[in-house]
Amino acid sequence: MIKSHTGNTPLARKAGFVIDVLTVARRAIRSIPRDPETVVPAILFPAFFFAVNIGMFQDLVDTPGFDFKAFQIPVAILFAVTGISRAMSLVLDIQGGYFDRLGMTPVTRLSLLLGLMVADLVLVVLLTIPVLILGAFVGVRFETGILGMVVFVIISGFWGLAFAGFPYAIALKTGNPAAVNLSFLIFMPFIFLAPVFIPREAMTSWLGTVVMYNPVTYLLDAMRSLIMVGWDLQALFQGALAVSLVAIFSMSLALWTLRNRVTRK
Amino acid sequence: MPNNSSYTIETKELVREFGRARAVDRVNLFVKPGEIYGFLGPNGAGKSTVVRMLTTLLLPTQGTANVAGYDVVKSPTEVRLRIGAALQEAALDNKQTGRELLDLQGRLYGLSGSITKNRIDELLELVDIGNAVDRLIETYSGGMKRRLDLAAALIHNPAILFLDEPTTGLDPISRTKVWEEIRRINQELGMTIFLTTQYLDEADQLAHRVGIINHGKIVAEDKPDVLKKSVGSDVILVTLKGSIEAAVQLCTKLPSVKNVESHGNQLTVSVSNGAQAIGPVAIALNDSGIPIDEITLRTPTLDDVFLHFTGLRLAEEAQAEEWKDL
Questions:
Q1: Cβ distance B169 to B199 under 8 Å?
Q2: What pLDDT does A2 receive?
Q3: Can you list the positions of beta strands (E) in chain B?
Q4: Which of A10, B45, B123, B261 could form a disulfide bond with B268, CB atoms 3.0-4.6 angstroms apart?
Q5: Residues of chain B contacting A19 with CB distance shorter than 8 Å
Q6: What is the mean pLDDT of residues A115-129?
Q7: What is the ipTM metric for this complex?
Q8: Which residues of A fall within a CB distance of 8 Å from B8?
Protein backbone atom coordinates (compact mmCIF):
# COMPACT_ATOMS: atom_id res chain seq x y z
CA MET A 1 0.00 0.00 0.00
CA ILE A 2 1.45 3.33 -1.06
CA LYS A 3 1.60 5.96 1.65
CA SER A 4 -0.55 9.05 1.52
CA HIS A 5 0.84 12.50 1.43
CA THR A 6 -1.50 15.31 0.60
CA GLY A 7 -0.58 17.95 3.15
CA ASN A 8 0.99 21.25 2.23
CA THR A 9 4.41 20.26 3.61
CA PRO A 10 5.94 18.41 0.70
CA LEU A 11 8.13 15.34 0.94
CA ALA A 12 10.31 16.92 -1.75
CA ARG A 13 12.84 19.67 -1.11
CA LYS A 14 15.59 21.39 -3.03
CA ALA A 15 18.54 19.01 -3.09
CA GLY A 16 21.14 21.78 -3.44
CA PHE A 17 23.40 22.81 -6.28
CA VAL A 18 26.25 20.33 -5.67
CA ILE A 19 23.94 17.33 -5.32
CA ASP A 20 22.04 18.46 -8.41
CA VAL A 21 25.27 18.62 -10.45
CA LEU A 22 26.48 15.25 -9.17
CA THR A 23 23.09 13.63 -9.80
CA VAL A 24 22.95 14.87 -13.39
CA ALA A 25 26.62 13.92 -13.89
CA ARG A 26 26.08 10.43 -12.50
CA ARG A 27 23.29 9.80 -14.97
CA ALA A 28 25.43 11.10 -17.84
CA ILE A 29 28.49 9.04 -16.85
CA ARG A 30 26.33 5.94 -16.49
CA SER A 31 25.03 6.36 -20.01
CA ILE A 32 28.52 6.65 -21.61
CA PRO A 33 29.21 2.89 -21.92
CA ARG A 34 25.61 2.42 -23.10
CA ASP A 35 26.31 4.82 -25.92
CA PRO A 36 29.26 3.16 -27.73
CA GLU A 37 28.61 5.07 -30.95
CA THR A 38 29.91 8.19 -29.19
CA VAL A 39 33.00 6.62 -27.65
CA VAL A 40 34.28 4.09 -30.17
CA PRO A 41 34.90 6.57 -33.05
CA ALA A 42 36.58 8.92 -30.58
CA ILE A 43 39.05 6.13 -29.73
CA LEU A 44 39.58 4.75 -33.24
CA PHE A 45 39.69 7.95 -35.28
CA PRO A 46 42.66 9.61 -33.50
CA ALA A 47 44.66 6.37 -33.58
CA PHE A 48 43.95 6.03 -37.29
CA PHE A 49 44.81 9.68 -37.90
CA PHE A 50 48.02 9.35 -35.89
CA ALA A 51 49.12 6.24 -37.80
CA VAL A 52 48.33 7.79 -41.21
CA ASN A 53 50.12 11.05 -40.40
CA ILE A 54 53.20 9.27 -39.21
CA GLY A 55 53.20 6.99 -42.25
CA MET A 56 52.67 9.80 -44.77
CA PHE A 57 54.65 12.72 -43.42
CA GLN A 58 57.37 11.39 -41.17
CA ASP A 59 59.92 10.96 -43.98
CA LEU A 60 59.12 14.44 -45.35
CA VAL A 61 59.60 16.35 -42.13
CA ASP A 62 62.07 14.11 -40.36
CA THR A 63 65.18 16.06 -39.49
CA PRO A 64 67.82 15.27 -36.89
CA GLY A 65 66.66 16.23 -33.40
CA PHE A 66 63.00 16.51 -34.45
CA ASP A 67 60.68 13.75 -33.25
CA PHE A 68 57.66 13.80 -35.56
CA LYS A 69 55.82 11.15 -33.54
CA ALA A 70 56.04 13.28 -30.41
CA PHE A 71 55.03 16.26 -32.53
CA GLN A 72 51.88 14.43 -33.67
CA ILE A 73 50.68 13.07 -30.31
CA PRO A 74 48.95 16.35 -29.25
CA VAL A 75 47.19 16.47 -32.65
CA ALA A 76 45.84 12.97 -32.12
CA ILE A 77 44.73 13.95 -28.62
CA LEU A 78 42.90 17.00 -29.97
CA PHE A 79 41.07 14.81 -32.46
CA ALA A 80 40.15 12.46 -29.63
CA VAL A 81 38.76 15.02 -27.22
CA THR A 82 37.45 17.87 -29.38
CA GLY A 83 33.71 17.82 -29.83
CA ILE A 84 33.24 15.08 -27.25
CA SER A 85 30.15 16.00 -25.29
CA ARG A 86 26.78 14.79 -24.14
CA ALA A 87 25.15 17.41 -26.36
CA MET A 88 23.50 14.73 -28.48
CA SER A 89 21.89 13.15 -25.44
CA LEU A 90 20.78 16.64 -24.40
CA VAL A 91 19.08 17.04 -27.79
CA LEU A 92 17.37 13.69 -27.34
CA ASP A 93 16.22 14.80 -23.89
CA ILE A 94 14.76 17.97 -25.39
CA GLN A 95 13.07 16.15 -28.25
CA GLY A 96 11.73 13.35 -26.09
CA GLY A 97 10.36 15.66 -23.40
CA TYR A 98 12.74 14.41 -20.70
CA PHE A 99 14.27 17.87 -20.44
CA ASP A 100 10.78 19.16 -19.55
CA ARG A 101 10.48 16.48 -16.90
CA LEU A 102 13.77 17.68 -15.40
CA GLY A 103 12.48 21.25 -15.71
CA MET A 104 9.48 20.40 -13.55
CA THR A 105 11.72 19.30 -10.69
CA PRO A 106 13.25 21.82 -8.28
CA VAL A 107 16.70 21.16 -9.82
CA THR A 108 18.98 24.18 -10.30
CA ARG A 109 18.86 24.99 -14.01
CA LEU A 110 22.61 25.49 -14.30
CA SER A 111 23.26 21.99 -12.98
CA LEU A 112 21.44 20.51 -15.99
CA LEU A 113 24.37 21.73 -18.10
CA LEU A 114 27.21 21.51 -15.58
CA GLY A 115 26.34 17.92 -14.70
CA LEU A 116 26.77 16.93 -18.33
CA MET A 117 30.07 18.80 -18.49
CA VAL A 118 31.42 16.92 -15.47
CA ALA A 119 30.66 13.71 -17.36
CA ASP A 120 32.39 15.15 -20.44
CA LEU A 121 35.50 15.89 -18.41
CA VAL A 122 35.61 12.30 -17.18
CA LEU A 123 35.17 10.94 -20.71
CA VAL A 124 37.73 13.30 -22.24
CA VAL A 125 40.34 12.32 -19.67
CA LEU A 126 39.62 8.65 -20.35
CA LEU A 127 39.97 9.20 -24.10
CA THR A 128 43.47 10.65 -23.76
CA ILE A 129 44.72 7.44 -22.19
CA PRO A 130 44.61 5.16 -25.28
CA VAL A 131 46.38 7.83 -27.36
CA LEU A 132 49.10 8.21 -24.73
CA ILE A 133 49.52 4.44 -24.62
CA LEU A 134 49.80 4.41 -28.39
CA GLY A 135 52.40 7.17 -28.21
CA ALA A 136 54.39 5.25 -25.59
CA PHE A 137 54.15 2.14 -27.76
CA VAL A 138 55.84 3.95 -30.69
CA GLY A 139 58.51 5.39 -28.42
CA VAL A 140 57.22 8.86 -27.43
CA ARG A 141 58.50 9.92 -24.00
CA PHE A 142 57.61 13.00 -21.93
CA GLU A 143 60.54 15.34 -21.19
CA THR A 144 58.57 16.49 -18.14
CA GLY A 145 57.99 12.97 -16.83
CA ILE A 146 54.86 11.66 -15.13
CA LEU A 147 53.90 15.08 -13.75
CA GLY A 148 54.10 16.53 -17.25
CA MET A 149 51.87 13.74 -18.48
CA VAL A 150 49.31 14.63 -15.81
CA VAL A 151 49.45 18.30 -16.82
CA PHE A 152 49.10 17.20 -20.46
CA VAL A 153 45.93 15.24 -19.62
CA ILE A 154 44.53 18.18 -17.61
CA ILE A 155 45.12 20.60 -20.51
CA SER A 156 43.49 18.12 -22.89
CA GLY A 157 40.53 17.80 -20.54
CA PHE A 158 40.02 21.53 -20.28
CA TRP A 159 40.30 21.95 -24.02
CA GLY A 160 37.68 19.23 -24.53
CA LEU A 161 35.44 21.00 -22.05
CA ALA A 162 36.08 24.44 -23.54
CA PHE A 163 35.10 23.24 -27.01
CA ALA A 164 32.09 21.31 -25.67
CA GLY A 165 30.41 24.67 -25.03
CA PHE A 166 29.77 24.94 -28.80
CA PRO A 167 27.81 21.70 -29.29
CA TYR A 168 25.87 22.43 -26.10
CA ALA A 169 24.98 25.90 -27.34
CA ILE A 170 23.84 24.41 -30.66
CA ALA A 171 21.89 21.66 -28.88
CA LEU A 172 20.12 24.10 -26.57
CA LYS A 173 19.42 26.60 -29.32
CA THR A 174 18.19 24.21 -32.01
CA GLY A 175 17.20 20.99 -30.25
CA ASN A 176 18.30 19.40 -33.54
CA PRO A 177 20.59 16.31 -33.68
CA ALA A 178 21.81 17.08 -37.21
CA ALA A 179 22.95 20.55 -36.15
CA VAL A 180 24.82 19.09 -33.17
CA ASN A 181 26.55 16.59 -35.46
CA LEU A 182 27.80 19.47 -37.58
CA SER A 183 29.32 21.24 -34.58
CA PHE A 184 32.58 19.36 -35.16
CA LEU A 185 32.95 21.43 -38.35
CA ILE A 186 33.63 24.47 -36.15
CA PHE A 187 36.84 22.71 -35.16
CA MET A 188 38.05 22.24 -38.76
CA PRO A 189 39.37 25.77 -39.38
CA PHE A 190 40.88 25.78 -35.89
CA ILE A 191 42.84 22.60 -36.52
CA PHE A 192 43.83 23.02 -40.17
CA LEU A 193 44.92 26.62 -39.68
CA ALA A 194 47.27 25.56 -36.90
CA PRO A 195 50.74 23.99 -36.98
CA VAL A 196 49.43 20.46 -37.25
CA PHE A 197 51.89 18.87 -39.67
CA ILE A 198 54.85 21.26 -39.66
CA PRO A 199 56.32 23.51 -36.96
CA ARG A 200 54.91 26.98 -36.58
CA GLU A 201 58.15 28.62 -37.76
CA ALA A 202 57.80 26.94 -41.14
CA MET A 203 54.41 28.55 -41.75
CA THR A 204 54.80 31.90 -43.47
CA SER A 205 52.80 34.51 -45.39
CA TRP A 206 49.04 34.80 -44.61
CA LEU A 207 49.03 31.35 -43.05
CA GLY A 208 51.66 32.47 -40.55
CA THR A 209 49.44 35.42 -39.57
CA VAL A 210 46.32 33.28 -39.18
CA VAL A 211 48.25 30.72 -37.15
CA MET A 212 49.39 33.46 -34.81
CA TYR A 213 45.78 34.31 -33.90
CA ASN A 214 44.58 30.73 -33.68
CA PRO A 215 44.18 29.52 -30.05
CA VAL A 216 44.87 25.93 -31.14
CA THR A 217 48.41 27.02 -32.08
CA TYR A 218 49.15 27.92 -28.45
CA LEU A 219 47.36 24.84 -27.17
CA LEU A 220 49.54 22.62 -29.39
CA ASP A 221 52.66 24.55 -28.39
CA ALA A 222 51.90 24.01 -24.69
CA MET A 223 51.17 20.31 -25.13
CA ARG A 224 54.22 19.74 -27.31
CA SER A 225 56.45 21.59 -24.88
CA LEU A 226 55.57 19.06 -22.17
CA ILE A 227 56.63 16.19 -24.44
CA MET A 228 59.51 17.64 -26.42
CA VAL A 229 61.00 20.57 -24.46
CA GLY A 230 60.48 20.34 -20.71
CA TRP A 231 58.83 22.81 -18.33
CA ASP A 232 58.33 25.82 -20.61
CA LEU A 233 56.18 28.07 -18.40
CA GLN A 234 55.60 30.68 -21.08
CA ALA A 235 54.23 28.08 -23.50
CA LEU A 236 52.05 26.61 -20.74
CA PHE A 237 50.73 30.03 -19.76
CA GLN A 238 49.91 30.92 -23.36
CA GLY A 239 48.23 27.55 -23.86
CA ALA A 240 46.14 27.99 -20.71
CA LEU A 241 45.20 31.50 -21.78
CA ALA A 242 44.15 30.29 -25.25
CA VAL A 243 41.99 27.52 -23.78
CA SER A 244 40.49 29.98 -21.29
CA LEU A 245 39.53 32.43 -24.03
CA VAL A 246 37.81 29.72 -26.06
CA ALA A 247 36.14 28.47 -22.87
CA ILE A 248 34.86 31.92 -21.93
CA PHE A 249 33.38 32.39 -25.40
CA SER A 250 31.86 28.91 -25.76
CA MET A 251 30.56 28.72 -22.18
CA SER A 252 28.98 32.15 -22.48
CA LEU A 253 27.17 30.92 -25.58
CA ALA A 254 26.11 27.71 -23.84
CA LEU A 255 24.87 29.52 -20.73
CA TRP A 256 23.02 32.08 -22.80
CA THR A 257 21.25 29.36 -24.79
CA LEU A 258 20.51 27.44 -21.57
CA ARG A 259 18.91 30.54 -20.11
CA ASN A 260 16.80 30.97 -23.22
CA ARG A 261 15.80 27.32 -23.17
CA VAL A 262 14.70 27.29 -19.53
CA THR A 263 13.13 30.74 -19.56
CA ARG A 264 9.43 30.03 -19.50
CA LYS A 265 8.64 32.37 -22.37
CA MET B 1 3.59 31.99 1.51
CA PRO B 2 0.70 29.93 0.17
CA ASN B 3 -2.63 31.64 -0.32
CA ASN B 4 -5.66 30.49 1.66
CA SER B 5 -7.75 29.39 -1.28
CA SER B 6 -9.85 26.29 -0.79
CA TYR B 7 -8.94 25.24 -4.31
CA THR B 8 -5.85 23.19 -5.16
CA ILE B 9 -5.72 24.63 -8.65
CA GLU B 10 -7.13 28.05 -9.30
CA THR B 11 -6.75 30.12 -12.44
CA LYS B 12 -8.31 33.47 -13.16
CA GLU B 13 -8.59 34.86 -16.68
CA LEU B 14 -5.56 32.83 -17.73
CA VAL B 15 -4.26 33.74 -21.17
CA ARG B 16 -1.35 32.45 -23.22
CA GLU B 17 -0.40 33.90 -26.57
CA PHE B 18 2.22 32.70 -29.03
CA GLY B 19 2.95 35.70 -31.19
CA ARG B 20 -0.45 36.85 -32.39
CA ALA B 21 -2.15 33.50 -31.81
CA ARG B 22 -4.09 33.13 -28.56
CA ALA B 23 -3.75 29.48 -27.50
CA VAL B 24 -5.49 29.90 -24.12
CA ASP B 25 -8.22 32.49 -23.80
CA ARG B 26 -9.32 33.71 -20.33
CA VAL B 27 -9.53 30.32 -18.69
CA ASN B 28 -10.96 30.13 -15.17
CA LEU B 29 -10.41 26.88 -13.30
CA PHE B 30 -11.30 25.91 -9.75
CA VAL B 31 -10.19 22.41 -8.84
CA LYS B 32 -10.89 21.10 -5.33
CA PRO B 33 -8.52 18.95 -3.26
CA GLY B 34 -8.89 15.22 -4.02
CA GLU B 35 -10.76 15.84 -7.25
CA ILE B 36 -10.08 14.27 -10.64
CA TYR B 37 -10.62 17.09 -13.08
CA GLY B 38 -10.89 16.08 -16.72
CA PHE B 39 -9.88 18.64 -19.29
CA LEU B 40 -11.46 17.51 -22.54
CA GLY B 41 -10.87 18.91 -25.97
CA PRO B 42 -9.51 18.15 -29.43
CA ASN B 43 -5.87 18.46 -30.43
CA GLY B 44 -4.82 22.08 -30.50
CA ALA B 45 -7.62 23.20 -28.17
CA GLY B 46 -5.14 24.56 -25.61
CA LYS B 47 -5.15 21.73 -23.05
CA SER B 48 -1.41 21.11 -23.04
CA THR B 49 -0.66 24.82 -22.96
CA VAL B 50 -2.73 25.16 -19.80
CA VAL B 51 -0.90 22.19 -18.27
CA ARG B 52 2.50 23.65 -19.21
CA MET B 53 1.57 26.89 -17.45
CA LEU B 54 0.29 25.08 -14.36
CA THR B 55 3.43 22.92 -14.18
CA THR B 56 5.70 26.01 -14.39
CA LEU B 57 7.12 25.21 -17.82
CA LEU B 58 5.49 28.23 -19.45
CA LEU B 59 4.61 31.71 -18.26
CA PRO B 60 1.08 33.00 -18.73
CA THR B 61 0.68 36.05 -20.94
CA GLN B 62 -2.10 37.37 -18.70
CA GLY B 63 -4.10 36.27 -15.69
CA THR B 64 -3.11 34.34 -12.60
CA ALA B 65 -2.63 30.69 -11.76
CA ASN B 66 -2.20 29.23 -8.29
CA VAL B 67 -1.25 25.60 -7.77
CA ALA B 68 -1.13 24.09 -4.27
CA GLY B 69 -1.60 27.60 -2.97
CA TYR B 70 1.41 29.08 -4.77
CA ASP B 71 1.56 31.42 -7.72
CA VAL B 72 3.14 29.64 -10.70
CA VAL B 73 4.89 32.83 -11.80
CA LYS B 74 6.17 34.12 -8.45
CA SER B 75 6.87 30.82 -6.65
CA PRO B 76 7.66 28.18 -9.29
CA THR B 77 9.93 26.15 -7.00
CA GLU B 78 7.25 25.88 -4.31
CA VAL B 79 4.85 24.67 -6.98
CA ARG B 80 7.40 22.17 -8.36
CA LEU B 81 7.90 20.62 -4.92
CA ARG B 82 4.17 19.87 -4.71
CA ILE B 83 3.31 18.64 -8.19
CA GLY B 84 4.06 15.63 -10.31
CA ALA B 85 3.41 15.46 -14.02
CA ALA B 86 3.37 12.99 -16.85
CA LEU B 87 3.21 14.98 -20.03
CA GLN B 88 2.18 13.86 -23.52
CA GLU B 89 4.41 11.00 -24.69
CA ALA B 90 6.31 9.27 -21.90
CA ALA B 91 9.26 11.55 -21.15
CA LEU B 92 11.95 9.04 -20.25
CA ASP B 93 15.61 8.36 -20.87
CA ASN B 94 15.87 5.14 -22.85
CA LYS B 95 19.50 4.59 -21.83
CA GLN B 96 18.62 4.14 -18.16
CA THR B 97 16.86 1.31 -16.40
CA GLY B 98 13.50 2.01 -14.82
CA ARG B 99 15.04 1.86 -11.35
CA GLU B 100 17.86 4.24 -12.27
CA LEU B 101 15.35 6.72 -13.67
CA LEU B 102 13.20 6.62 -10.54
CA ASP B 103 16.28 6.93 -8.33
CA LEU B 104 17.44 9.98 -10.30
CA GLN B 105 14.00 11.59 -9.97
CA GLY B 106 14.02 10.97 -6.24
CA ARG B 107 17.45 12.57 -5.83
CA LEU B 108 16.46 15.61 -7.88
CA TYR B 109 13.52 16.05 -5.49
CA GLY B 110 15.97 16.01 -2.59
CA LEU B 111 14.91 12.62 -1.21
CA SER B 112 17.51 10.65 0.72
CA GLY B 113 18.75 7.32 -0.63
CA SER B 114 16.66 5.26 1.81
CA ILE B 115 13.47 7.25 1.23
CA THR B 116 13.97 7.01 -2.53
CA LYS B 117 14.45 3.25 -2.26
CA ASN B 118 11.28 2.87 -0.19
CA ARG B 119 9.32 5.05 -2.58
CA ILE B 120 10.53 3.00 -5.56
CA ASP B 121 9.39 -0.21 -3.85
CA GLU B 122 5.97 1.32 -3.10
CA LEU B 123 5.55 2.64 -6.62
CA LEU B 124 6.54 -0.62 -8.24
CA GLU B 125 3.59 -2.21 -6.45
CA LEU B 126 1.33 0.50 -7.78
CA VAL B 127 2.39 0.62 -11.42
CA ASP B 128 3.04 -3.06 -12.04
CA ILE B 129 6.28 -3.01 -14.00
CA GLY B 130 7.65 -6.13 -12.33
CA ASN B 131 11.22 -7.26 -12.97
CA ALA B 132 11.44 -5.01 -16.02
CA VAL B 133 12.36 -2.18 -13.68
CA ASP B 134 15.98 -3.33 -13.90
CA ARG B 135 15.97 -3.45 -17.68
CA LEU B 136 16.86 -0.54 -19.97
CA ILE B 137 13.80 1.56 -20.72
CA GLU B 138 14.38 1.18 -24.47
CA THR B 139 13.18 -2.44 -24.10
CA TYR B 140 9.80 -1.39 -22.59
CA SER B 141 6.46 -1.51 -24.38
CA GLY B 142 4.46 1.71 -24.79
CA GLY B 143 2.20 0.79 -21.87
CA MET B 144 5.14 0.05 -19.58
CA LYS B 145 6.75 3.36 -20.47
CA ARG B 146 3.54 5.19 -19.58
CA ARG B 147 3.34 3.43 -16.24
CA LEU B 148 6.99 4.17 -15.47
CA ASP B 149 6.37 7.78 -16.44
CA LEU B 150 3.51 7.81 -13.96
CA ALA B 151 5.76 6.33 -11.25
CA ALA B 152 8.40 8.99 -11.97
CA ALA B 153 5.74 11.66 -11.52
CA LEU B 154 4.80 10.16 -8.15
CA ILE B 155 8.26 9.53 -6.67
CA HIS B 156 8.13 12.55 -4.36
CA ASN B 157 4.52 11.89 -3.38
CA PRO B 158 3.10 15.12 -4.81
CA ALA B 159 -0.17 16.64 -3.68
CA ILE B 160 -1.27 17.25 -7.26
CA LEU B 161 -0.72 15.09 -10.31
CA PHE B 162 -0.95 16.44 -13.84
CA LEU B 163 -1.56 13.89 -16.56
CA ASP B 164 -1.45 15.20 -20.09
CA GLU B 165 -3.20 12.72 -22.37
CA PRO B 166 -1.94 9.74 -20.39
CA THR B 167 -3.36 7.07 -22.68
CA THR B 168 -2.87 8.55 -26.13
CA GLY B 169 -1.40 5.90 -28.42
CA LEU B 170 -1.98 3.01 -26.02
CA ASP B 171 -3.78 -0.20 -26.87
CA PRO B 172 -7.12 -0.79 -25.09
CA ILE B 173 -5.66 -3.15 -22.46
CA SER B 174 -2.82 -0.78 -21.50
CA ARG B 175 -5.32 2.05 -21.45
CA THR B 176 -7.57 0.25 -19.00
CA LYS B 177 -4.55 -0.48 -16.77
CA VAL B 178 -3.57 3.19 -16.70
CA TRP B 179 -7.16 4.12 -15.83
CA GLU B 180 -7.13 1.67 -12.92
CA GLU B 181 -3.89 3.16 -11.65
CA ILE B 182 -5.23 6.71 -11.87
CA ARG B 183 -8.31 5.67 -9.88
CA ARG B 184 -6.18 3.95 -7.25
CA ILE B 185 -3.89 6.95 -6.87
CA ASN B 186 -6.88 9.20 -6.39
CA GLN B 187 -8.77 6.89 -4.05
CA GLU B 188 -5.87 5.61 -1.95
CA LEU B 189 -3.89 8.83 -1.71
CA GLY B 190 -6.60 11.40 -2.07
CA MET B 191 -4.35 13.03 -4.66
CA THR B 192 -5.79 15.79 -6.82
CA ILE B 193 -5.50 14.81 -10.47
CA PHE B 194 -5.69 17.18 -13.39
CA LEU B 195 -6.15 15.07 -16.48
CA THR B 196 -6.24 16.24 -20.07
CA THR B 197 -7.69 13.98 -22.70
CA GLN B 198 -9.15 13.93 -26.15
CA TYR B 199 -11.00 10.71 -25.38
CA LEU B 200 -14.61 11.13 -24.35
CA ASP B 201 -14.83 7.82 -22.54
CA GLU B 202 -11.67 8.61 -20.56
CA ALA B 203 -13.10 11.85 -19.24
CA ASP B 204 -16.44 10.18 -18.65
CA GLN B 205 -14.99 7.20 -16.77
CA LEU B 206 -12.37 8.96 -14.67
CA ALA B 207 -13.24 12.56 -14.01
CA HIS B 208 -15.36 13.85 -11.15
CA ARG B 209 -15.77 17.06 -13.13
CA VAL B 210 -15.08 17.82 -16.75
CA GLY B 211 -14.12 21.07 -18.41
CA ILE B 212 -14.59 21.14 -22.17
CA ILE B 213 -12.12 23.38 -23.96
CA ASN B 214 -12.23 24.46 -27.57
CA HIS B 215 -10.09 27.09 -29.31
CA GLY B 216 -8.53 28.00 -25.97
CA LYS B 217 -11.84 28.69 -24.19
CA ILE B 218 -13.75 26.61 -21.70
CA VAL B 219 -17.17 26.10 -23.28
CA ALA B 220 -18.74 23.92 -20.58
CA GLU B 221 -17.84 22.58 -17.17
CA ASP B 222 -19.58 20.30 -14.69
CA LYS B 223 -19.91 16.69 -13.57
CA PRO B 224 -20.07 14.37 -16.62
CA ASP B 225 -23.62 13.26 -15.81
CA VAL B 226 -24.83 16.81 -15.38
CA LEU B 227 -23.24 17.84 -18.66
CA LYS B 228 -24.83 14.93 -20.46
CA LYS B 229 -28.22 15.61 -18.93
CA SER B 230 -27.96 19.19 -20.07
CA VAL B 231 -28.43 17.98 -23.64
CA GLY B 232 -31.36 15.69 -22.69
CA SER B 233 -31.97 12.34 -21.06
CA ASP B 234 -31.78 10.54 -24.39
CA VAL B 235 -30.50 11.28 -27.85
CA ILE B 236 -32.10 10.20 -31.12
CA LEU B 237 -29.61 10.14 -33.97
CA VAL B 238 -31.16 10.37 -37.41
CA THR B 239 -29.18 10.03 -40.63
CA LEU B 240 -31.16 11.61 -43.43
CA LYS B 241 -31.22 11.39 -47.20
CA GLY B 242 -33.32 14.52 -47.65
CA SER B 243 -33.36 18.19 -46.59
CA ILE B 244 -31.72 18.69 -43.21
CA GLU B 245 -33.13 22.21 -42.69
CA ALA B 246 -36.72 21.01 -43.12
CA ALA B 247 -36.07 18.13 -40.72
CA VAL B 248 -34.67 20.50 -38.07
CA GLN B 249 -37.71 22.76 -38.30
CA LEU B 250 -40.06 19.80 -38.11
CA CYS B 251 -38.40 18.11 -35.13
CA THR B 252 -38.09 21.35 -33.17
CA LYS B 253 -41.89 21.63 -33.18
CA LEU B 254 -42.46 18.15 -31.72
CA PRO B 255 -43.63 18.34 -28.06
CA SER B 256 -41.15 15.86 -26.52
CA VAL B 257 -38.09 17.36 -28.21
CA LYS B 258 -35.75 19.51 -26.05
CA ASN B 259 -33.14 20.43 -28.62
CA VAL B 260 -32.13 19.68 -32.20
CA GLU B 261 -28.61 19.91 -33.61
CA SER B 262 -27.74 19.26 -37.24
CA HIS B 263 -24.38 18.26 -38.52
CA GLY B 264 -23.80 17.15 -42.09
CA ASN B 265 -26.64 14.82 -42.95
CA GLN B 266 -27.08 13.84 -39.31
CA LEU B 267 -29.65 15.13 -36.87
CA THR B 268 -29.10 14.90 -33.12
CA VAL B 269 -32.45 15.18 -31.34
CA SER B 270 -32.31 15.56 -27.55
CA VAL B 271 -35.39 14.29 -25.75
CA SER B 272 -36.39 13.58 -22.19
CA ASN B 273 -37.80 10.12 -22.93
CA GLY B 274 -36.26 8.41 -25.93
CA ALA B 275 -38.50 5.34 -25.98
CA GLN B 276 -41.60 7.53 -26.23
CA ALA B 277 -40.15 10.10 -28.59
CA ILE B 278 -38.44 7.96 -31.25
CA GLY B 279 -41.74 6.87 -32.80
CA PRO B 280 -43.22 10.37 -33.24
CA VAL B 281 -39.90 11.65 -34.64
CA ALA B 282 -39.72 8.86 -37.23
CA ILE B 283 -43.40 9.26 -38.17
CA ALA B 284 -43.17 13.05 -38.47
CA LEU B 285 -40.15 12.85 -40.78
CA ASN B 286 -41.71 10.10 -42.86
CA ASP B 287 -45.05 11.96 -43.17
CA SER B 288 -43.20 15.06 -44.34
CA GLY B 289 -41.49 13.08 -47.09
CA ILE B 290 -37.99 13.37 -45.62
CA PRO B 291 -36.38 9.97 -46.20
CA ILE B 292 -34.55 8.43 -43.24
CA ASP B 293 -31.42 6.40 -43.84
CA GLU B 294 -30.90 5.32 -40.22
CA ILE B 295 -32.40 6.12 -36.83
CA THR B 296 -30.93 5.11 -33.46
CA LEU B 297 -31.63 5.86 -29.83
CA ARG B 298 -28.94 6.18 -27.17
CA THR B 299 -28.07 8.02 -24.00
CA PRO B 300 -26.10 11.26 -24.45
CA THR B 301 -22.31 11.25 -24.49
CA LEU B 302 -19.84 14.01 -23.84
CA ASP B 303 -19.50 14.21 -27.62
CA ASP B 304 -23.13 15.35 -27.72
CA VAL B 305 -22.22 17.96 -25.11
CA PHE B 306 -19.28 19.06 -27.26
CA LEU B 307 -21.58 19.22 -30.29
CA HIS B 308 -24.13 21.21 -28.32
CA PHE B 309 -21.62 23.84 -27.24
CA THR B 310 -19.39 24.03 -30.32
CA GLY B 311 -21.54 22.85 -33.21
CA LEU B 312 -18.98 20.18 -34.07
CA ARG B 313 -18.23 16.60 -33.16
CA LEU B 314 -15.00 16.23 -31.16
CA ALA B 315 -13.35 13.95 -33.72
CA GLU B 316 -14.14 16.36 -36.55
CA GLU B 317 -12.80 19.32 -34.63
CA ALA B 318 -9.60 17.38 -33.99
CA GLN B 319 -9.33 16.63 -37.70
CA ALA B 320 -9.94 20.29 -38.56
CA GLU B 321 -7.10 21.30 -36.22
CA GLU B 322 -4.80 18.77 -37.86
CA TRP B 323 -5.62 20.17 -41.31
CA LYS B 324 -4.93 23.64 -40.00
CA ASP B 325 -1.50 22.46 -38.78
CA LEU B 326 -0.73 21.16 -42.27
A1: no
A2: 44
A3: 9-18, 21-31, 36-40, 62-67, 70-71, 83-86, 160-164, 192-197, 209-214, 217-222, 234-240, 257-263, 266-271, 292-298
A4: B261
A5: 107, 110
A6: 91
A7: 0.82
A8: none
Per-residue model confidence as pLDDT tens digits over B254-267: 888 888 888 788 88
- Residue to test with chain B: of A1, A3, A11, A18, most B Cβ within 10 A: A11
> Does the beta-carbon distance from A105 to B190 stay under 8 Å?
no
Going from the first residue of chain B to its last (326 residues), give the mean pLDDT of each consecutive group of 10, the final group possibly shorter.
81 94 94 94 88 95 95 94 87 91 95 92 82 92 87 92 87 84 88 90 90 91 87 84 82 84 84 85 86 86 81 65 53
Contact state of B110 with A106 under an 8 Å Cβ cutoff: yes
* Contact between chains at B122 and A2 (C-beta distance less than 8 A): yes
Tell me the shortest Cα–Cα distance from B259 to chain A, in angstroms: 43
Pairing verdict, β B160-164 and B83-86 = parallel
Residue ranges of domains in chain B, CATH in brackets: 9-223 (3.40.50.300), 228-325 (3.30.70.100)
- Please name the residues in contact with B270: beta carbons below 8 A apart, sequence gap of 6 or more: B231, B232, B234, B235, B257, B258, B259, B260, B261, B300, B304, B308
Chain A CA closest to residue B184: A2
